[in-house]
């Protein structure tokens, strides 16, 4: 049984600048792997590279044993790996329903099959069901984040990468979002989550934690072996000694 | 010749070459050969204008031919009324071309580059109709003849005199272009090409810069028209066609769109090249098209970029230029002002990015804004610097209201900033990058730049001294002459801060300057920020890295979800539980959730 | 009223150019300067097929579709795809002008500068009297074609799968890729469709505009005026803008003089650019370079 995501020696950069250096780690199937690290450490770059938005300068990425390293983004999405970008990058001028329809380009489901896929997603996020025909720009921040995850789900991913879903959301909403993510994991989805809320991460949202610093992996351990202090002080999120 | 000498005396080689061409043409070639040379001069003028407009300003002036026609017809009409004085004709032609440029540029630039390109292309289509409209003066489709015997200061010119006149005119114009390109106007255009946001943050209005480049580029076409009219003695609409416009574009691209000396090369190829053989005439259009596609795709710099690469390999890099004056060890003052932000609100598509923010920053102080991602820190910075228009609230620098002004106007009011990703134009030394920080200040007007007036020299010397002194202030004097893009990330970050400081602004806004820096880099950055503060500056720094900031700041403001949730000295913030909770996501305020988590942990 | 019909007929031609421009604008955000040359080549194809070689109309149209599609594909591959910004920046300004010139140059070599007359396609010559004015049957066909194609594409752009994909691709290419949309393929398809459409249009309008090499350059400007007035990225706008342009041209020709139309259209263009740069029905998502 191969792992959901095997990353070996991955190097990513922009032009001459290398932002991610020889990163290697494994994401086990059906687990949430939290990717943490301070700003500028390379987390978003890493997710972009995994999604194929950035070409790899070196290294390989295997999705359930399949080498997807050279593949363009849309091919990776079709293979079951997709990314929910930070900042709730949905198409604001399109309606909720149209945004979901976009998610369906990853496979060829049409007609009834597509409709039942939408029904599944609407059941998971009732707030979106009520606003099917609203322009997504009119949704609240939390709802937009739900929509961003929902449309990724329509593409039937096997591995879902999520970049900072909590940014800019009130604690209560963040809880809802994290709950939805945990439910997805319980149903068998593998998730890589970039998150800055360390207490949540270690408090039950993540199964494993990988920390990046300066583009390199400096920590790779199951969540239950780490304390909040261990992680937050390494990231300089607090100034306590 | 050293690289430095090459640029300072960069006018020598072109002068020698021009003189050589003149002597050889007059001595050896017959009248036909001399006419060819003059056509090359005419086309050089037009192509050079196209280079200025497109290569430097980014505006594809497809309609240069219309300015060319304007100049030619103004000259022709003057001649038909008995006015043969070249200088008058020249001035009138250039003015006419400039007017056409303004009329097409002001509206054309309103909607980006394609609108301008097509509006100017339209001008060429209009030529026959305009000529018909003023048929009695212009001769309509029949054309205008009798444009002969030009005079200069009243003296009728012989053919060879006129030849020399044209050659000198061409040379002088290229020197004008050179002076503009090497001046702060040229720097401004390069900054604009790199990033319109950077240009705005330095106080430059993109629209005005582009319009200026476009109108400037139309002037030599007018002069070319004047020369052309007297050269051929007869002008008609057949000489000013779309095909010519395309050929000139091809010449510009092949010579090198953003080069000064690519213009004569392209023009020469156009006039003398293989396309002029009788068999190839039919194929000429097709070949121009192929050139455009091939060169457009492969060789974005044209032949001139090849030339530059060769020069660099030979060790004569024209980029590393003028002498860097020794920096004075004296004091570098930054006249900081108070910044007041009151009740600022901004919503994007229903999401409240800023929900009523109040803060104050004082001169001689570093105010840090902390907060998790999505808190609104960068949005606040963008609101202060004008890149985002707040829905409500006030933003004051000293006693001046900034809200609602465009970013370049705000920059000129004394607001300097850096961006999260370093924005450094290509092909500039560290010294030149820092000099760009002063581009928003009033400087010498264009005529002064072209004629190298005392004011222009003084401003340039001041800019250089200020930049050198700022670099020394930051401890970067050794890298002043190095290509800025080749420097390591930490140094480039410092360079951006120096660029922000050199304008001696009322407030310096730093947007996550420490991101991606290692400990040593953070140390240097902190040192520079402290120096700027000690020199009297107001510094507002947005950062995510708590430890870095608490060591550096005098006052700290913590934001979350678009609001200020805590304010105080670093010590007060350091131990503030609410702040820590915001970062870590603790739910100490919500017992139910904590209980649920405890269950899962068990 | 005859003048009105004339304006609508010419306007329909401009509208068709604008529709062709929009096919590329709405799928890749590129302004394809070379698009009208496809129409020009279409008119020559009609000449060769109908006059020189007596080929059935259906075959000529089919040939236009195939040739137009192939040329569109070649243009995208050679002039747009290799650019570092893939059409989003300055490079496309030069290369699409270059592609335009290549097509013009090829036509010059093959057919020279003489204009050729082409008989009407699908309908015979002859005028009708409608609503108090005279109008050629072919003109009615062209007007109908403009209205129908604008309407069909308007709906397709809003509702179809491909329309949705292209709206996503030009709004945010990276986000579109993350939805499994191959933004590159959308771009290529846009060029192919536009090429097919434009060349077929050329065959149909050949009798009206006659086959001549300068057609492309004239249509570039006037088609641009139509798009600027109607709004970039909008098919309804293309129809509206085209009609306005055509009517302005014919009315000023009739009531002012023969030098007037281009000048008046120029003033119209400047006015629109100054007052409402995005056009009457412009799509804000389509940002023209």
Describe it.
The complex is a heterotrimer of chains A (about 240), B (about 600) and C (about 290). Chain A has about 240 residues and is α/β, with parallel strands linked by helices. Chain A folds into 2 domains: about 1-80 and about 160-240, Rossmann fold (3-Layer(aba) Sandwich), CATH 3.40.50.300; about 85-155, no CATH class. Chain A is about 35% helix and about 25% strand. Chain A has helices at about 45-50, 75-80, 95-105, 110-125, 125-130, 140-155, 170-185, 200-205, 230-235; strands at about 5-15, 15-25, 30-35, 60-65, 65, 80-85, 160-165, 190-195, 210-215, 215-220. Chain A has a 6-stranded mixed beta sheet with strand order 6-7-8-3-9-10, sandwiched between helices. A 4-stranded antiparallel beta sheet of chain A has the order 2-1-4-5, with helices on one face. In chain A, helix 7 (about 170-185) links the parallel strand 7 (about 160-165) and strand 8. In chain A, helix 3 packs parallel to helix 6 (about 140-155) and helix 4 (about 110-125) runs antiparallel to helix 6. Chain A starts with a strand and ends in a 7-residue tail after the last helix. Chain B is an alpha/beta fold and about 600 residues long. Chain B folds into 3 domains: about 5-235, no CATH class; about 335-415 and about 505-575, Rossmann fold, CATH 3.40.50; about 425-505, no CATH class. Helices cover about 60% and strands about 10% of the residues of chain B. Chain B contains 26 helices and 14 strands. Chain B has helices spanning about 5-10, 10-30, 30-55, 65-80, 85-110, 110-135, 135-140, 160-180, 185-195, 195-200, 205-230, 240-255, 260-270, 280-300, 300-315, 375-385, 405-415, 430-435, 445-450, 455-475, 490-500, 520-535, 545-550, 570-575, 575-585, 590-600; strands spanning about 145, 150, 155, 235, 340-350, 350-360, 365-370, 390-395, 400, 415, 505-510, 540, 555-560, 565-570. In chain B, the strands form 4 sheets. A 6-stranded mixed beta sheet of chain B has the order 10-11-12-7-13-14, with helices on both faces. Chain B has a 4-stranded antiparallel beta sheet with strand order 6-5-8-9, with helices on one face. In chain B, strand 11 (about 505-510), helix 22 and strand 12 form a beta-alpha-beta unit. The longest helix of chain B is centred in the middle third of the chain and has 27 residues, at about 205-230. Chain B is elongated, with a radius of gyration of 29 Å. Chain C is mainly α and about 290 residues long. Chain C has one domain (about 1-115, about 140-275). Chain C contains 11 helices and 2 strands; from the N terminus they run ααααββααααααα. Chain C has helices spanning about 1-30, 35-50, 55-80, 90-110, 135-160, 160-170, 175, 185-210, 215-230, 235-255, 260-275, and strands at about 125-130, 135. In chain C, strands 1-2 form a two-stranded antiparallel sheet. The mean pLDDT of chain C is about 90. Chains in contact: A-B, A-C, B-C.
